[in-house]
Amino acid sequence: MNRFIHLLVLASLVLCQILSLLSLSSSTPLALKLDSSLYVDKKGDFLISPNNVFTAGFYSVGKNAYCFSIWFTKPLFNGDQTVVWMANRDTPVNGKRSKLSLSKTGNLVLQDADQDLPIWTTRTRDVTGSAELKLNNSGNLYLQSKNEQILWQSFGSPTDTLLTNQPLTTGTMLVSSRSRTNFSSGFYKFIFDNDNVLRLVYSGPKVTGVYWPNPELRAWDAGRSTYGFGRTATIDRFGRFIATDGLFFNTTDDGSQPIRRLTMDFDGNLRVYSLDESKQIWEVTWQAMAQTCKIHGSCGENSTCSNEPNFGRKCTCLPYHKMINRTDWSYGCEPEFESSLCGTGGDDDFLKLPHFDFYGYDSLYLPNTTLDVCKQECKNMCDCKGFQYKFDKEKAIFLCYPKFLLLNGFGSVSFIGTFYLRVPASTLSSHTNKSIQKVRETKLNCFGSPRMVQLERIYDKKKEIGSIKLLLLFTYVFGALEIICIIYFFYKTRSTKKFKGYLQAATGFERFTYSDLKRASQNFETEIGRGGGAVVYKGVLSDNRLVAIKRLQEANSNQGEAEFLAEVSTLGRLNHMNLIDILGYCAEGKHRILVYEYMENGSLAENLNSNELDWDKRFEVAIGTAKGLAYLHEECLEWVLHCDIKPHNILLDHDYLPKVADFGLSKFLDRDGRGNSEFRQARGTRGYMAPEWFFISVPITSKVDVYSYGVVMLEMITGRSPQGGDQSGGGYERPMVRWVREKAGVVGDGYGGKDNWIDEIVDSAVKGEYDKVRMGNLIKVALQCAEEHLDARPTMSQVVDMLLHGDDGRS
Ligand SMILES: *[C@@H]1O[C@H](CO)[C@@H](O)[C@H](O)[C@H]1NC(C)=O
Ligand SMILES: *[C@@H]1O[C@H](CO)[C@@H](O)[C@H](O)[C@H]1NC(C)=O
Ligand SMILES: *[C@@H]1O[C@H](CO)[C@@H](O)[C@H](O)[C@H]1NC(C)=O
Ligand SMILES: *[C@@H]1O[C@H](CO)[C@@H](O)[C@H](O)[C@H]1NC(C)=O
Ligand SMILES: *[C@@H]1O[C@H](CO)[C@@H](O)[C@H](O)[C@H]1NC(C)=O
Ligand SMILES: *[C@@H]1O[C@H](CO)[C@@H](O)[C@H](O)[C@H]1NC(C)=O
Ligand SMILES: *[C@@H]1O[C@H](CO)[C@@H](O)[C@H](O)[C@H]1NC(C)=O
């Protein structure tokens, strides 16, 4: 018996070898010749440009759904691929037996499995009998006949992207994709309009309109000419865009020659991206709209728009409203309450939304009005949905604008003014703590792979031909051999290892045994951190990966276990470049251990006094930490608070880029904020804790992390510890924060400090220059974060926005 198994194993190994040799020898072709095909299910069936920059082939856009596409061969740092062209974006084909064929006659045909009619074709005809499909170094896929004549080229039918030197002309346009992950045609177009002017147009399900250049301007006032000859627009390799309507611009990196693309993004903005090849990221080097909230069709009625840190805008329903169409923001939101606003109005109250504005649709303008009068005026009107109330500094009076339609909503901390939303008093009293930041829209692809979209394509299974049956038979036999082989090796080598539990299946982490980790850490020898009921050790896994091993203390094993499971399940679903990655865990007897990626440069706390961490790196730490926290708070399905932001929990990788660590204390808040009550037990570290921890009546929200973030940033800038100095003021306001506030001369919204207040605040022990404007901005943002009252603090994504775009969200 034993000998028989050996034989089988040997046979399957030989088969393995033969197969791998076979697959190696079929290298990627450089051209597709007449009467041949590229198959969706044949591995490595691609055309690659001679310089290896571009690849053409079948690209997976969903489960069993493929589009014939061109993309940049090299993936971005996060593994994402950048697609620049698609043949069949609106009708993906099956993942089996679909093919792109160049027929004998020179027609290029894309065929879905078993369907007779082609999905897409170039309708070309080659008379020379020697046409070839090639992908050139510019990313152009072209069909060329023997006499050098180009029969068809992908440059002539762009989808949403123009590559360097690719012209946009009459009859072509860029059409955005539907969303970040759905490549189907979206609502935004970049076209030559009827009057020869290049425009951005929104044509959505309900409304259509031009939004760029500013539709209120005549073409020539916007610097455009209507007398275009020939209608062409291109961007050259130096980053200069030139069009026949007089539009020209240089990218911010003009002159240099990186890889660029001009893309009509799904959010309605037209952007030029340049590839930073060292980091493998796309940098925006030009964009049409500085203020994405001004893009038409942005958010619809009863919703507001805010700038999203990483990419464009974010729509949010007003409190007590819900999205009308879950897939499309342009439908807007409808109230969840019974809106019988007419009548006495006695039953209505107002929800205060600071820093929100709705442009236009005023039914009245009432200068020099008190808040009570303004409220009464609104109640008296049947169609008043709420009002804008703001202070006019020049005249020193309050202005009141009742509104009959809530469109073009916009939220930005820099906006001084408050919107009062009219809501039935009964609704308002039944949900006390609701604030607008809690009503974020659920992101569809929060966790996991963005391309795991279900899109079933059916095809007739009955038509299987003989050769496939044979192939299947072979596969079965081979598969059986393989299974025997695996089982054999499993028992031979790992007979001691138990099967892994369901937790791994659920979370996808590696489960380690206690002895594995004991070995990896050399019996828990090198301690690299401590806190939160745990000690962290350095370790080396058997595959030589450096890891941080966090061992929860056995003493409080009851609490420790709950903490542990919370951390495992929280971490299992979070995935962001500014959050620490978890690699695995161990739950064996009393032992509760987590295994994290190792961070070469320790924590921010260890680096505060280091000159390695210069000001540029400190700005990166500020932005990265804010992005990580913004993701925790807002991007995902659940609301996750950290509750213990301090320099020890901000770790630095080899480039000194920050990752937020230690979610041991974090806990889910449900989206209504109902989870608050059990959350009262104070958490965190003295010195960084927000005031509301000390007041039972104030709810605990994501603003506690914002506060701690503000304190940490001020500590990083000033080099002063938040607890330094006396606490005799009796207040929870840290002396350090107060000191900065005094130096900056904060009065109301202004900064009246001495001319050199920034220099006085900034830690002089840190060597090197810093950008004054950036520093001033960072200090202001940090001070806003460390405001005593939680409503005065921005959200984390607003922080990112302010750090990236200066202090004003508007353009
Ligand atoms: C690729 O094709 C385009 C369009 O035919 C052409 O302008 C460009 O010069 C070609 N690029 C290379 C590197 O051959
Ligand atoms: C993309 O959006 C279109 C239009 O809404 C829809 O029909 C299609 O199913 C979506 N595709 C995927 C993969 O979600
Ligand atoms: C773009 O750069 C070119 C030279 O590289 C210069 O002549 C031109 O004035 C620049 N255009 C703008 C709008 O800055
Ligand atoms: C939502 O919008 C999509 C895309 O425009 C549309 O296909 C769908 O029918 C809409 N659903 C509802 C309920 O209106
Ligand atoms: C927006 O809300 C108002 C009530 O505040 C409601 O009358 C209106 O129908 C809503 N708009 C949409 C598109 O549902
Ligand atoms: C505003 O109203 C108050 C009281 O009605 C009045 O005393 C004041 O002069 C007004 N201010 C202006 C600028 O009209
Ligand atoms: C930070 O990491 C880099 C790269 O691993 C290393 O060369 C450097 O010595 C580290 N600095 C400190 C202070 O550990």
Automatic annotation (TrEMBL):
<dbReference type="GO" id="GO:0106310">
    <property type="term" value="F:protein serine kinase activity"/>
</dbReference>
<dbReference type="GO" id="GO:0005524">
    <property type="term" value="F:ATP binding"/>
</dbReference>
<keyword id="KW-0547">Nucleotide-binding</keyword>
<feature type="signal peptide">
    <location>
        <begin position="1"/>
        <end position="16"/>
    </location>
</feature>
<keyword id="KW-0472">Membrane</keyword>
<keyword id="KW-0812">Transmembrane</keyword>
<feature type="transmembrane region" description="Helical">
    <location>
        <begin position="404"/>
        <end position="423"/>
    </location>
</feature>
<keyword id="KW-0067">ATP-binding</keyword>
<dbReference type="Pfam" id="PF00069">
    <property type="entry name" value="Pkinase"/>
</dbReference>
<dbReference type="InterPro" id="IPR008271">
    <property type="entry name" value="Ser/Thr_kinase_AS"/>
</dbReference>
<comment type="similarity">
    <text>Belongs to the protein kinase superfamily. Ser/Thr protein kinase family.</text>
</comment>
<keyword id="KW-0808">Transferase</keyword>
<dbReference type="InterPro" id="IPR000858">
    <property type="entry name" value="S_locus_glycoprot_dom"/>
</dbReference>
<feature type="domain" description="Bulb-type lectin">
    <location>
        <begin position="23"/>
        <end position="156"/>
    </location>
</feature>
<feature type="domain" description="Protein kinase">
    <location>
        <begin position="522"/>
        <end position="804"/>
    </location>
</feature>
<protein>
    <recommendedName>
        <fullName>Receptor-like serine/threonine-protein kinase</fullName>
        <ecNumber>2.7.11.1</ecNumber>
    </recommendedName>
</protein>
<dbReference type="InterPro" id="IPR017441">
    <property type="entry name" value="Protein_kinase_ATP_BS"/>
</dbReference>
<keyword id="KW-1015">Disulfide bond</keyword>
<dbReference type="GO" id="GO:0048544">
    <property type="term" value="P:recognition of pollen"/>
</dbReference>
<dbReference type="GO" id="GO:0004674">
    <property type="term" value="F:protein serine/threonine kinase activity"/>
</dbReference>
<dbReference type="GO" id="GO:0016020">
    <property type="term" value="C:membrane"/>
</dbReference>
<dbReference type="Pfam" id="PF01453">
    <property type="entry name" value="B_lectin"/>
</dbReference>
<dbReference type="InterPro" id="IPR024171">
    <property type="entry name" value="SRK-like_kinase"/>
</dbReference>
<feature type="binding site">
    <location>
        <position position="550"/>
    </location>
    <ligand>
        <name>ATP</name>
    </ligand>
</feature>
<keyword id="KW-0245">EGF-like domain</keyword>
<keyword id="KW-0418">Kinase</keyword>
<dbReference type="Pfam" id="PF00954">
    <property type="entry name" value="S_locus_glycop"/>
</dbReference>
<keyword id="KW-1133">Transmembrane helix</keyword>
<keyword id="KW-0325">Glycoprotein</keyword>
<dbReference type="InterPro" id="IPR000719">
    <property type="entry name" value="Prot_kinase_dom"/>
</dbReference>
<dbReference type="InterPro" id="IPR036426">
    <property type="entry name" value="Bulb-type_lectin_dom_sf"/>
</dbReference>
<dbReference type="InterPro" id="IPR011009">
    <property type="entry name" value="Kinase-like_dom_sf"/>
</dbReference>
<keyword id="KW-0723">Serine/threonine-protein kinase</keyword>
<feature type="transmembrane region" description="Helical">
    <location>
        <begin position="470"/>
        <end position="491"/>
    </location>
</feature>
<keyword id="KW-0732">Signal</keyword>
<keyword id="KW-0675">Receptor</keyword>
<dbReference type="InterPro" id="IPR001480">
    <property type="entry name" value="Bulb-type_lectin_dom"/>
</dbReference>
